[in-house]
Description:
One of its GO terms (molecular function) is transmembrane transporter activity. The protein has 466 residues and is mainly alpha-helical. The protein is 75% helix and 3% strand. It has one domain: Growth Hormone, Chain: A. The model is unreliable at 1-19 and 462-466 (pLDDT under 50).
Amino acid sequence: MIAQRPDDNFSGQTTTNAVTYPPGYKDPREHVTARAVGIWLVALITYIVAITGRTSLGVAGVEALDRFHINASQLAVFTAVQVGVYALAQIPTGIIIDRVGAKKTMVAGALIMALGQAILALTTSYPLAIAARVLIGAGDATAFLGAMRLLPAWFPLRATPLFTQLTAGVGQLGQFISAVPFLAMLHAAGWVPAFLSLTTGGVIIALVGLIALNDVPAVPGADGARPSRRERRQAKKNAQPEARLGIGETLRIVTTHPVCWQGFFTHWTGLMHQCIFTLLWGMPLMTLGLGLEPAQASVVLIINTLAVIVAGPVMGVLSARAGRSRFVLIAVIAAADMAIWAVLLASETAPPYWAIILLNVGMGILAPMSNLGFDSVREHVDRKVLATGTGLANMGGFIATMIASQGIGLLLDYSAHGTSYQWADFRLAWWAVIGIWAFGFAGLIVSQLVLRRHGRAADREKITLD
């Protein structure tokens, strides 16, 4: 058959070509194919490896205090630097992916993460360890955006939202890997072997991605054979690309559109608590503040992970059905997330084990709300700036985490005066989280009001860039 469809080439440009399909060929953009699922699985595993690297220091926080001879404020710098680099890299990474393709970007990102983990494994220097976390944050930034770029190229539009939620949810298995096998190796073999294992994982997934990933499906010839590399290069050369927006124009459009900022603050209020707990302060809070054993704390993190995985697809369905009421859903969930923390922190005595479990069930169920902002961005923003707009939205939760994590460290040191950290110290320190959440919630409300000011019709219409 002959069909007209957009064909994304390896440089990120878009063309519209007449494509002749041989008999029996299934276009991945019309049918979910085994090849598409294989591409997605490789991208998903890459994201899992990135999450593992991101959360590994969270379960090793107590060991890091001893290894680098640092206090809580200095420990918080690890997460603040990594998360800050990750957040600031979102827009540049989105632009790079659009221009050079997801495959090359994800492979390079996995290798950069592996290098960072190797340095962190071998050094005892605090400044060098901080530099390693910079590399880990930069490499981590490529995984999720790369996966999001591959989905619309390999799957029908009707299936893309489901696979988006599955990627975000199942990717949290990386947190399980940190909480169980990585933590077990850390306690059994020590710091160096544990973090070198993450280096090995990064190198392996980079090699797998180099072999298995493809930016776009290759259309076979009339005889059903896969086109040669020469034929693919010639087809790319003959394609007539649309005019590509400049970086400055792209940034102007994204940073001035209120829906991108609504996505930013949706991510801010939806992901901040989850990241603060799983990336750094959850393990110290449970082991030092509540007196739990490391094994008990690991169980809590596993329960958190399972809750996120189960809730992700459900949250996607709710987002699709909410339609115009999506903002109400976002605001209610953001308030509920803060409320369950307020209940826990209200206790002057250390809460029991079951209370921290219930907190993590609730937090894990509510955390996928942070992805609802991506749905709004996709509905309002033209595809020419979609990756960059998604990158801006994806910055919110990590910037909030960076600021709040550092605030917790400063308040802990102020409260404990350099001695051991107790539950009362963590209660005081969590005021940093409350303040940062309140700022984000205010931003969420303001961005919604600005979006409404554009008019109901404009709210539902994509930007026209012609």
